[in-house]
Amino acid sequence: MGNGVKKFMYVNRRAPYGTIYALEGLEVVLIGAAFDQEVCMVFVDDGVFQLKKGQDTAESNMKNFSPTYRALGDYDVNKLYVEKESLEQRGMSEDDLLELTYEDEDDDYKEKPSIRIVNREELADLMEQQDVILNY
User: Fold this and answer.
1) Pick the residue with more confidence: 92 or 29?
2) Which of 96, 116, 123, 132 could be bridged to 92 by S-S, CB 3.0 to 4.6 A?
3) How big is the CA angle at 57 (ends 56 and 59), to the nearest 5 degrees?
4) Domain for residue 104, yes or no?
């Protein structure tokens, strides 16, 4: 990439609550996107719970930050990859995930889904294409 833009992949492996990793990971992504990095996010293992609809955090004494994911499209973070096998192992499907979209400026600002379900093999190929991979 001759334009100097580095590709950053943020891999989210942990459940959204109980630790600060998920929230901190999201904050770092928003900061990175503000600095014109090419950013994508991956959700594997218990990280898939970060995108689950209808999160109830009352018993954890932590703020439900899942609505913040809706802001990602405004920061041009529109590549959210969810590992199919991680969803299936947790009894979840794409229907259980938040509906996150972005406006595609190259396609007359049409709303498009940000979340893409990929299998392990596709995910490995995506990881090969990154300059930097950060785990949360």
Assistant:
1) 92
2) 96
3) 110
4) yes
pLDDT of residue 26 exceeding 90, the answer is no
The amino acid that residue 120 corresponds to is R
| pLDDT for 15 | 85
What's the confidence (pLDDT) of residue 19?
A: 78
Decide if 1 is inside a domain. no
**pTM recorded for the entire structure:** 0.86
Residue whose C-alpha is closest to residue 111's, from 99, 103, 119: 103
E-state strands within 73-124: 80-83, 101-104, 110-113, 115-118
The CATH number given to whatever domain includes residue 116 is: 3.40.1260.10
Range(s) of the domain holding residue 48: 7-135
pLDDT value, residue 85 = 98
Residue appearing with tokens 């096998």: 85
Q: How many domains does the chain divide into? A: 1
Short-list 115, 116, 76, CA closest to 99: 115
